[in-house]
Write a structure and sequence with these properties.
Layout (H helix, E strand, L loop, with lengths): L1 E7 L2 E12 L9 E9 L20 H7 L4 E10 L3 E8 L20 E10 L4 E14 L5 E2 L6 E2 L1 E14 L1
Antiparallel strand pairs: 1-2, 2-3, 3-4, 4-5, 5-6, 6-7, 7-10, 8-9
Length: 171
């Protein structure tokens, strides 16, 4: 559970950031993991962590523009560990940007979904390549579009966001 105390319009409010249950070992079903609740989901390398845990002052431009800094929604995610990788999918309520509605009409999201593949390949004893593919899909049902909270960006229509991430790591 992660919550924040924020001041909006002169009043203090408690804002629920994350509240989820997750299996931590694959013993429930062989090499299969589950997570459900409200969370930062596997959509890009940085999304599953809070922005304050980043090693830099602000999120990269694609996260700020396409995800309003991070995709945080209610949902369910399942993943399966392969030999050198992980394959997963998620089903979400669709209330976070760019989907869903404005705060005034919250509760009728878009039923967003995602799929991802993450793997690491060893090049040498101290070098590794991380190859990750992500896809997030959904539709904004708000007639006037969904406005982001941070950067005043309005989104209308369907969204299919695909991310390819390739990192060279020195161990």
């Amino acid at each position: 559970l992660t919550a924040a105390i924020v001041r909006e319009d002169g009043a203090d409010k408690i804002e629920l950031e994350e509240a989820y249950v997750e299996t931590l070992d694959g013993s429930f079903l062989d090499n299969t993991f589950f997570k459900f609740g409200r969370a930062f989901w596997n959509v890009g390398t940085l999304n599953p962590q809070h922005a304050h845990a980043d090693d830099f002052a602000d999120r990269p431009l694609p996260y700020r523009v396409f995800l309003n800094k991070a995709y945080n929604d209610d949902g369910f995610e399942a993943s399966y560990l392969l030999g050198s990788g992980e394959l997963g999918f998620g089903i979400f309520r669709g209330e976070d940007f760019p989907f869903g509605n404005t705060a005034a009409s919250e509760g009728s999201g878009s039923d967003a979904w995602s799929i991802y593949y993450k793997s690491d390949f060893n090049i040498s004893n101290n070098e590794e390549i991380a190859f990750n593919l992500y896809h997030l899909s959904g539709r904004s049902k708000a007639p006037n579009g969904r406005v982001s909270n941070e950067d005043n960006v309005t989104f209308r229509g369907d969204s299919d966001l695909s991310i390819i991430n390739l990192d060279l790591l020195w161990l």
